[in-house]
Automatic annotation (TrEMBL):
Gene3D superfamilies: NAD(P)-binding Rossmann-like Domain. Belongs to the D-isomer specific 2-hydroxyacid dehydrogenase family. Residues 14-286 form the D-isomer specific 2-hydroxyacid dehydrogenase catalytic domain. It holds the Pfam family 2-Hacid_dh_C. Residues 102-276 form the D-isomer specific 2-hydroxyacid dehydrogenase NAD-binding domain. One of its GO terms (molecular function) is NAD binding. InterPro entries: D-isomer_2_OHA_DH_cat_dom (IPR006139), D-isomer_DH_CS (IPR029753), D-isomer_DH_NAD-bd (IPR006140), NAD(P)-bd_dom_sf (IPR036291). CDD domains: 2-Hacid_dh_1 (cd05300). Keywords: NAD, Oxidoreductase. It comes from the Bacteria. This is D-2-hydroxyacid dehydrogenase.
Amino acid sequence: MKVYFTFNSRPDLQQQLIEHFPKVEFTFHSRIENEVLAEADVLVTYGEDLNDEHIKIAKNLKWIFVASAGIEKMPRKAIADRNIIVSNVRGIHKKPMAESIIAHILSLKRSLPYIYNNQQNKIWDKKGNPTELNGSTALIIGPGAIGAEIGRLLQAFEVYTIGLNRSGEDAPFMNETHRISDLAQQLPKADIVISILPSTEETTHMIKYEHFQLMRENAIFMNFGRGNLVETDVLIRALEEKLIYHAVLDVFEVEPLPYDNKLWELDNVTISPHCSSHSSRYLERSLEIFKPSLEKWLKGDTDIENQMDILRGY
């Protein structure tokens, strides 16, 4: 059994794998080497380094483990045509992402950017107009593992949480849950709108200008799912017209965000460079999912955790 990591990890984590699976031949590279790829049975990747030609070369490949949540940049049709199993690390992002989102919310509510700016300019000024998080209403679009963790933390601040999912069935740590098709009806209720949706045909440009018109003028809009949820021009227009108070964006239609993009110039947006899930423990958590799945795989059991429908995108 040959397992090929197309990225380097900490030496101690590599050694743990080698010791735990003595019969497995592991290879760790910082980029794809076609000769190694051709013999790999299992591929571990972040997903952004694969193309159709790689799938052709990887003739022995039967399972791809993606150390990321998204697979939109992968050669999905080529993978599906080969019936290669794909699984990911869904769930490991919930702690760091939830902490990032709460940090951004509290920063805006308690006027921290204003305080930090005054400090840089040696200004003593108490007029930051801080508000309180408790008593707010948050609309969480996509209350899965990450959304549930956000809901749990928000409820600790006495925030009322509304979840939107495909089914409308109850979701953890949501005070109420509705179908995602009810978006327009729920938006006017929210002080904070948080999207953690994946990139699919249904979610592409799902949020339109009309949706921003439905939001409260004091609303905070947060996109931590995928950048194509909103057309960039629509988002810029909504922010320029002050339809909402502030936007916090961790994802964008084009990444890195181009230097000349108007979003850089607006004072009612926070730009986070797709880093909300980053953590010193990221790979540790990834391997906590990979190891038991590899143990199953070696026993001939393909019912591994977090299997994905590669064509649907999740």
